[in-house]
Amino acid sequence: MLTTAIVVPLLGALLVMLLPRGRERLLRMLATAVAAVPLVISARAWFLFDGAAGFDQVETVAWIPTLGAAYTVGLDGISLPLVAMTSLLFVAAIAYPVDLRGQPKAYFALFLFLESVSLGVFLALDLLLFYVFWDLSLVGMYFLIGIWGHGEPARRAALKFFLYTLAGSLALLLAVLALYLSSEPRTFDMAQLIARRPLDDGSLAASLAFAGFALGFAIKAPLVPFHTWLPPAHVDAPAPVSTILAGVLLKMGTYGFIRILLAMMPNTFQRFALPLAILAVVSIVYGALVALAQPNIKRRIAYTSVNHMGYTVLGIAAAGAVVSGHENARTLALVGATVEMVAHGLITGALFLIAGSIWQRAQTYEVGEFGGLARRAPALTGLTALAAFASLGLPGLAGFVAEFQIFIGTFALYPWLAAVGLLGIIITAALFLHLLQRVFFGELPERWSGWGDLSAVELVSLTALLLFVVAIGVAPAPLLAVIEAGVRPFIGR
């Protein structure tokens, strides 16, 4: 079943490329339908999930027996919510209107390819397979930014994204090889590596392997100072691509911190937890401050991703701060970090789609060019306000559920870091309230007198994402139950 979720989008990409030219509407409908298949499968997987310790619904086939590598996929309470979120974001992003530059076949095929490999990252239970999917995700994103982005700057942004993240992937590959060579018998099986922890002995080799993994994940997340590829990639990419970049690809980095470093190297993680927590707090405050100064709507949203991924890594660092003790606080922090990944994907994904709707109508992202749009676009205004309040952590919305648990857990372990990190929430509130005020209220410039509100497709896509944001904020128990089942093996050591 899980293999179907990976294979169907890949087959859909091939089918899209075989269809005749000039049928953009048909291609969009077909691609959206194909992208929805993994969403249906993830819903069924959620229904079948039993919450037992270990991995669920595992599928395995021999791949390279001489290396101890296999095609093995499965899920637990941490990966299942990310798989469901990823599937939903791809459906919304593919359906969302955008200028396809006369190349709809390539656009939809690359999107479906990217969905396939993205799901592969979260479902892989073989370390070599994980790396293959991880690297392939760079290819799809590179072409989507470079071809359908905004002119020549998009090509430079795509190149910077690819080189930056490829450098992180090479560090990741070296760490994967170190972990593999330390296992006996040698294996890439994640479940066995988690159980044996072959490179978690406090040695120099363990520290170097941890550094290689951490560098690759920090670039992908991204954490300060490895974030500089992110703002240009977002600003110059088309809005649906930014949605996937922020909502899915950034989560691969934070997911890697949990799935590999926290699970396979807990003792080594403990030694580096405080520096990682400090780096996370720097990202929280720096990302919020820089976002506040941005006159460009999309760049402002991009820097809030640096801020929110800082929250996630802070929760992960708190969860790994001690191998035993403070179990309740560490559980809260790790559950909150996982909820933050889901919440950020839905909220920021919606915000980038909203930015795309603004671009389609105005061909600019500059905050100073707007004002009074609430008079012409009440639906756009309402959904933007909802997404903005969710991003700043308003109670009753998904962001609050995540950040409250992260800070409660972190206060028990790093109270001063948690106190400093709270500044990020205040600054985030200021930057979004300023954005809402400047863009949607005040006087309506004459040139926007004919501004149109959201189309039916835009409205349905945004509403679908934000309904889940509200549902998680109001009734988080179903999500928390699944995540807590996945967290127990980490904290129960």
How far apart the termini lie comes to 31 Å
User: Quaternary arrangement of the chains shown?
Assistant: single chain
Q: In angstroms, what is the radius of gyration? A: 21 Å
Largest sheet: 2 strands, antiparallel
Q: How would you portray this structure in words?
A:
It is a single chain. The chain is mostly helical and 493 residues long. 74% of the residues lie in helices and 3% in strands. It contains 18 helices and 2 strands. A two-stranded antiparallel sheet has the order 1-2. Helix 15 packs across helix 17 (456-474). The chain is globular. It starts with a helix and ends with a helix.
List the helices and strands and how they pair.
Elements (H helix, E strand, L loop, with lengths): L1 H17 L5 H25 L7 E9 L4 E7 L3 H17 L8 H20 L3 H22 L3 H31 L7 H7 L7 H17 L9 H7 L2 H26 L1 H27 L4 H23 L7 H36 L15 H14 L6 H16 L1 H26 L15 H19 L2 H15 L2
Task: Using brief descriptors, characterize the structure shown.
single chain; 493 residues; 3% strand; mainly alpha; two-stranded antiparallel ribbon; 18 helices
Gist?
The chain has 493 residues and is mainly alpha-helical.
